[in-house]
Write a structure and sequence with these properties.
Length: about 1050
Amino acid sequence: MQTKFTTSTNILRDSSRSLNYIPTPNSLRTVNQIANDFKKGLRSFNIIGSYGTGKSSFLWAFNQSLIGKKKYFNFNILNSPKVGFLNFVGEYKSITDVFIEHFEISSKRNVNENIFSEIYNLYYALGKKNPLLVIVIDEFGKFLEHASLNDPEKELYFIQQLAEFVNNPDYNILLITSVHQNFDAYSFSLTNSQKQEWTKVKGRFREITFNEPVEQLLYLASEHLKQSARPKNIDISIKKSISILKKSKAFPINQNYVSEVSSKLFPLDLVAANILTILLQKYGQNERSLFSFLESTDHTGIKRFDQKSNPFFNVSNVYDYLIFNFYHHINSRYNPDFTAWASIKNGIEKVEKMASNRVVDCLKVVKTIGLLNITASAGSEIDKNFLINYSEVCLGIREPDRVINELIKSNVITYRSYKNRFILSEGTDLDIPLALIEAGNKVSQISDISTRLNRHFEFPQILAKSHSYQRGTPRIFEFKISTIPIKDIPVDEIDGYINLIFSDTLSVANLIEESQNQEEAIIYALYLNSVTIKNQLFEIEKTIRVLDENDHDRAAVKELKQILLHQKNLLTHFILHNLYSKNDDLVWIYRGKVIEIESKKSLNKYLSKICDEVYTSTPVFKNELINRHKISSSAHTAKRNYFKALVDNWNKPELGFDKDKFPAEKTIYLTLLKENGIKLYSEDLNHKVKVSKNSSFYALWDYSNKFLQEAKISKRPLSEFVIPLSRRPFKLKQGFIDFWLASFFFIKRDDFALFGDTFIPYINEEVLELIVKYPNQYEVKAFDIDGVRLDIFNSYRIFLNQHSKEKIGNESFIETIKPFLTFYRGLPDYSKTTKRLKKETIAIRSAISSSKDPEKSFFEDFPMALGYNLETLQASKQNLKNYIIKLQDSIRELRTSYDNLLARFEDFILTEFIGEKLPFNVYKEKIQLRYKKLKRHLCLPHQKIFIQRLDSEIDDEKAWLSSIANALLGKPLGSISDEEEVLLYDRFKSMILELDSLTILSKEDIDEENEDVIGIQLSSFIDGINRSSIRMPKIKIQEVTRIEELIRLNLSKNRALNIAALAHILKDLLKK
């Protein structure tokens, strides 16, 4: 029965269909690789192959073989496995949503965990005896395309979790995906950090290439064409065509294989066959397009080409077929070879305008040169001999030498000696070889190689693989070119340097001596003979000079850029060839010793050795999520969650994490703390947090503790903690440093005081975020509490009725300083500013108000305020006792300062206006009765406010007096200053005088036993009549008499003058 041709396979649609599948060597190799790697513990595989290579058919056959339906492959993953398949075909949507739909998951919470639970249930349902669950995702690239443009972090995290779930060697779960291009190609539109995440996820998969080689396609074509009719004597031409191909080195070929298939390929010649298969791989879909060509019936196809003028279906015929069948793709701007095809088209147009009778032959040559320039190997020889022989044998051209010369003369083709090939001319009048020769006279000879190399050459960074794998910290080396040995300190993501030295003066002996004392991770490579590199740099400079002088000539610029690219590639070859091969012109030196580097592998191995020697204190920390210089956005989320768990759940087992779930923050806790014996929670009351002695973190823990020990002397910024960690012997990655900084200082939070702009008493997750982000803005001061300091501290606690402590920490300091700060904050403003205190009390008040460091306050500021220091307090117990007594007295005086103000105000009222000591309720009532008959409607606004306060029903003495002061000064009594106290008394006197003058008195209103009342009435033509009353306690009579006597002594003998003078004085006094 004839086999029908199908264009594609769908693993879902065709799962129950019977297809005619033929295993190829490529598919057999892939199956064996999967089986062998599975036994080694690998579980996730990503098959990469171009369109049409049969990936879907392979996955279909893989399924059929495993379930035992049809044995296309013989392999043994497990012994008699119970197999289950979970098949998906990619589509442009979220891969997470596809899994959700498949398992019909309705819950929106913990979606990923629910998906993995469903997958595990499928696996568990297969039974306990050799279960094997195979998850197949064909067209996986469509999911990746969607992920790159829609929430890449979330989608990629799911893919990462899926791979990690499958990679558990305890389960027999196999994940196979297929894509059309490299995993990284789908990350084109992402940011650099997202691309790094992409690369990390890619590393979870074992990549397997699935492109059928050209030989396989040629074999398929030869099997299809082997029965074709052939003319007599064609075997001689076939042998010649084989010879032409071998000499040209245009394509890598297997001698035996070529001899076997060349005869079967007729009418295809070998050059045309190679070009055809290569371009079908690029523009078509491999076997699918190949069989379309073999079955083609159009006029350009192999069944209808002109065999009279073409001995073979040659390169010219291939061009015609491709143009006819792939015209849209070839002329698309997205075609990577668009420019080359445009050049062929331009060459054809030039030939068609030539006045020649050999136009057809010329066109064949132009098409052949054009396609060879697209497909032939870089080292191939497409010279005149090749063109002559190929034209004669395969193109059917007579006298091809004349045709080629005619094309050269017409500037259609040009020979480029640096490429060993003919190319299609772009239409420039510039004689490029001559221009380059002339430029040699304009460009100076190369003297400074290092500067020129840095300008034209860029080395890739190198990862020291062995050290990075063993320690978990990626160690990256950077190339540096110089004329003298560098002494740079590696910073940021760079951990070491490969210093390439180009110098005519530096000897090996000198470099050995200089490198002996180099402690950084720097390996030196001294080039002893740099003539070849100098000459190549000279050629590059000449080409750049010609480019600059002819930048208006587009065709010349294009050709010169190709020449420049070729020259730079040669420069790379010269440098790297010496670098990675045993060569007498290059000497490798490290720390005063000459070493041998014979290959990339040996160099990488030695770089790991350097890291082992230089970074001796680097702990083993295998957490690639955070052990890197810059962490990803998903890691930042994990960091916030980890900090929150650290702060909120430090007193819970496992930081409160669910034992059955493994979010990123839990992984951080496990790798950073738990694996190193750093246990925050314990039921043992005497538990002390420390690192395991066998932990690789011991050196880091010891360094961190020493930093705190040194911080007992004075404050130290956290940046001084961070900087040494970023250098040898640690050279930790910034992500690691951030997590360690936060973790260690939270663990030790009771052993130090933290300062930003001020003292920070409590550390929460926001504080941890800030100290990690801005370590230079925060300082720590470790507590140095022993001996007399402990005695002083406990004396403070006894003074505050708190229990004594044997060990003092941040919590104890906060507990002890807090009452002082609370006391000060509770004082009235008057008490915070008054100077009517002892100087010691003022000093202690200043010390409390300006307290920013509890330790400094307790052991320096407070004692100094009271005339003591640590030495005097240490001298005797009595001094310490006297100090605490003075502190108590000062605190007491400060606390009672406002009460003393109230007492003075009350005493002033009683003395000046009552005349005797009376209780508050009595003198208050007496003052109120004094103004019972006051004509309130005549009072001014400020007088009304004052009389309202006098008449207030407030029973509290302090509140009543304060309200009186407020009426007179516009502020509460507790807010006045020392100067305003004097003003208060003056205003009170004036107010009483004003109110007395407005009050009409009768004899019944006056207490004749305790007060004198004087009524005054002054009359003048200008001011009119001015009345006033003065009520004065009789206890003031003596003081009045004394003033009266002083006045009488100064009176004159003129009675009228005396009366006038006294009247003026009285008038002025009454106005005030």
